[in-house]
UniProtKB/TrEMBL annotation:
<keyword id="KW-0472">Membrane</keyword>
<keyword id="KW-1133">Transmembrane helix</keyword>
<protein>
    <submittedName>
        <fullName>Uncharacterized protein</fullName>
    </submittedName>
</protein>
<keyword id="KW-0812">Transmembrane</keyword>
<feature type="region of interest" description="Disordered">
    <location>
        <begin position="217"/>
        <end position="284"/>
    </location>
</feature>
<feature type="transmembrane region" description="Helical">
    <location>
        <begin position="144"/>
        <end position="163"/>
    </location>
</feature>
<feature type="transmembrane region" description="Helical">
    <location>
        <begin position="113"/>
        <end position="132"/>
    </location>
</feature>
<feature type="transmembrane region" description="Helical">
    <location>
        <begin position="33"/>
        <end position="57"/>
    </location>
</feature>
<feature type="transmembrane region" description="Helical">
    <location>
        <begin position="183"/>
        <end position="203"/>
    </location>
</feature>
<feature type="transmembrane region" description="Helical">
    <location>
        <begin position="78"/>
        <end position="101"/>
    </location>
</feature>
Length: 284
C-alpha cells in the first residue's frame, strides 16, 4: 500500500469520524433554536400575507376601506414584529410553566426561557406603545385586526392540539415530565387565544349582544315606551264652566257697593262685576 493511498484513507476516516460530531452540533442547535426558527417561519409569512391583502385591496378593490391608507407598509412591518414578539413571549411563558411544575434541569431551562420572555415582552410593548400610536391605526385598523385574528386562530389551533396531546400523555402515563410539558403547552395556547381574542373583539367592536345574536339568542325583554297623551283642547259649544275664565275682575268702590248691592238678573254681587277686555268700566 502506497503512502499516498494510506494518507487518503486516513483523511477519509477523519472526515467520517467528524460527521457524528457535526450532526450532534446540528441537533443541539435545533434543540436550542428550533422553536425560534418555527416562530419565524410562522410570523414572517403571515406578515407578508397581511401586506399582500392590504396592497391588493388598494390596487383592485375600489370600495375597500383602506384605499386611502398610506401606512400599509409600516403597519405590515409592525404586524410582523407583533407576531414575532407574541410567539417569543408565548414560548418563554411555556418554558417557565414547565420549569415551575417539574423543576427538571432548572438552570438550563431557565437560560432558554428567560431570553425569549424578555425579548418577546420588549417587542410587543414597543409595537403597542410606540409603533401603533405613530401610525394611522385609528383611521385604518385593518392590519392590527388581521394580526390579532391570526394570533387568535393560531392560539385556538394550539389549544385544541394541546388538549389532545395532554389527554394522550395522561392515558399513556410515561412519566410526569411529558404530562407537564403537554399541560404547559395547553395553558399557554389557552392564554394566547383568550388575550388575542379579547383584543380582536375590541378591534372589531364586538360585544355581548352581537355574540348572543350570532348564537341565535334573543336580547331579552325590552320595554316599550308609550307616547305621551296630549291634553284635550276645549271644543266649541262646551258649557262656560269648561273654558277658563279670563275676564278681568273690576274692583268697585265701597260707596258704589252701598248704592248697588247687586246687579239685577245676574245674581252676583257688584264687587265681582266683569269689565270689558280693554279695561275697567266706570261705575253707573
Amino acid at each position: 500500500m502506497s503512502l499516498s493511498l494510506l494518507a487518503e484513507l486516513q483523511t477519509q476516516a477523519s472526515v467520517l469520524g467528524a460527521i457524528p460530531a457535526v450532526g450532534r452540533q446540528i441537533l443541539e442547535g435545533l434543540d436550542r433554536w428550533g422553536n425560534t426558527l418555527l416562530i419565524c417561519a410562522w410570523a414572517l409569512p403571515l406578515a407578508g400575507l397581511i401586506y399582500a391583502v392590504l396592497l391588493l385591496g388598494q390596487m383592485f378593490a375600489p370600495t375597500c376601506e383602506w384605499r386611502e391608507d398610506e401606512h400599509i407598509g409600516l403597519k405590515a412591518m409592525l404586524a410582523g414584529l407583533l407576531l414575532l414578539g407574541t410567539g417569543l413571549l408565548a414560548n418563554g411563558v411555556q418554558g417557565l410553566l414547565f420549569l415551575f411544575v417539574t423543576f427538571n434541569d432548572f438552570g438550563a431551562g431557565l437560560e432558554r426561557a428567560v431570553p425569549d420572555l424578555i425579548v418577546g415582552f420588549a417587542v410587543v410593548s414597543a409595537v403597542l406603545l410606540v409603533g401603533i400610536p405613530s401610525s394611522n391605526h385609528e383611521e385604518h385598523p385593518q392590519a392590527m385586526r388581521m394580526s390579532a385574528g391570526a394570533v387568535t386562530m393560531s392560539g385556538a389551533v394550539g389549544t385544541v392540539l394541546g388538549a389532545e396531546r395532554l389527554f394522550a400523555e395522561i392515558f399513556a402515563f410515561d412519566g410526569w415530565p411529558p404530562i407537564a410539558d403537554a399541560g404547559a403547552s395547553f395553558i399557554t395556547a389557552l392564554l394566547t387565544v383568550l388575550i388575542a381574542g379579547y383584543a380582536y373583539a375590541g378591534l372589531t367592536k364586538l360585544d355581548g349582544s352581537d355574540l348572543r345574536l350570532g348564537l341565535g339568542l334573543s336580547r331579552g325583554p325590552q320595554r316599550v315606551q308609550s307616547a305621551p297623551t296630549p291634553s284635550p283642547r276645549p271644543q266649541s259649544g262646551a258649557p262656560p264652566s269648561a273654558a277658563p275664565d279670563l275676564a278681568p275682575t273690576v274692583s268697585v268702590p265701597a260707596s258704589a257697593q252701598a248704592q248697588a248691592p247687586g246687579v239685577q238678573g245676574t245674581g252676583r254681587p257688584a264687587s265681582t262685576l266683569r269689565g270689558p277686555p280693554g279695561g275697567p268700566s266706570a261705575p253707573g
